[in-house]
Sequence to fold (454 residues):
Amino acid sequence: MSEYEIETVDGPQAADREAAPPPVVAVVGRPNVGKSTLVNRILGRREAVVEDVPGVTRDRVAYEANWSGRRFTVVDTGGWLPDASGLAAAIAEQARLAVDLADVVMFVVDATVGATDVDEAVVDILRRSGKPVVLVANKVDDAATEADAAMLWSLGIGEPHPVSALHGRGSGDLLDAVLDALPAEPPPETFAAAGGPRRVALLGRPNVGKSSLLNQLAGEKRAVVDSVAGTTRDPVDELIELGGREWRFIDTAGIRRRYRENQGADFYATLRTQSALERAEVAVVLIDASEPLAEQDLRIVSMVIESGRALVIAYNKWDLLDEERRHYLEREIDRQLHNARWAPRVNISARTGRHVDRLVPALDTALEGWGTRVPTSKLNQFFADLVAAHPHPIRGGKQPRVLFATQAGVRPPKFVLFTTGFLEEGYRRFIERRLREEFGFAGTPIDITMRIRE
Ligand code: GDP
Ligand code: GDP
Fold:
């Protein structure tokens, strides 16, 4: 145990920390009906989610939205592009995907064009799913076009909501309809009460060995499968006993299920990673040690850091490495994973079981760092010493100082520094490094913000 106060799951702040993940609203429709414009409208910003370059998969696909105080996640399926098998098939696949992961589907039709055969095919899929659907009649820029919207009653999935995603007309009413369709908000305690075992997301690009590790970990004691209460999605988790305790591995159904290698697979993987992270406390990012570090590995690590979850890095397929590669890898890791040097690392073989038992201590370390709270008195002593020994460089005749600091939160640790001026990037990195040296925080991102008093 650390000497510092550590908040645990059933600690005093558990209720507000353990809020259930927000429901998911997926936006579906043919290309050019205005899905991205609508998503921008919902997010209340002008910045372009809209891609100029067709054929480019958007990096981010899920966004946090808020309407009338209700939080939800909007998924822009427009980022998932039709492949060679043709538009109709691609849109159908997109609809299935949306239905799979969403609580509510917003189906966007261009009212000025009317319902096409492809739209009809999508309606079939949506109707069979039983998921609530909000029909959006887009490009109704003025009253004259309202009649076009009414024509869409013919699709047989309820009331068309006339809207101009571009100008905002009707978007408030539309969002009210979306809120009505969302599942009832679960009471905040539900999730906390369900959250006894620590929640682990097993992440990594395809073929790094996620399923193999899962099988290795589950072993004989395999698989108490259960679905999470309080959501209408049924992500299937597994409870696995490790080191004498139960751990909840998030969305193991998604890991075990095999997806076709197509353009959508990448998109789907990103989405799944994001939604697994939402529900997890700690992520194990699996990396194939027998191959060079890939862009996608780094991206997944960055996603974990951005999500504020604890992180363990597991180098898998260690059995395939020769001495030279092991040696090389150490240097490669330090260079390429420099933004996650603080993460505990384990070198394992999911195939042979080598050092798989080291995962639990690494998870414990990461979760401990994630939940560590430094008492204000200790923190300010630390800053007094730090500022005295290593003052901020003088800039333009001024020398910003840290007056006072407080830890505003845990999971991950968040610090607020009250300063007399802007602390430059290098100095903030120095502060982070020193905080880590002094107080641990292994396996957790830490968040530092400044309040400047001029
Ligand atoms: P997506 O492919 O479904 O994501 O469609 P986009 O959001 O990229 O929009 C396609 C085109 O339709 C763009 O040129 C938009 O400016 C335009 N558009 C989107 N919404 C509206 C609208 O409400 N009214 C009008 N007139 N044009 C719109
Ligand atoms: P996933 O796509 O991340 O779930 O990866 P899988 O668990 O399906 O593994 C992909 C391939 O890598 C399979 O052929 C596994 O047998 C192999 N594999 C997984 N872990 C190891 C390991 O530790 N050593 C070796 N040599 N092969 C492994």
Observations:
- The longest strand covers residues 402-409.
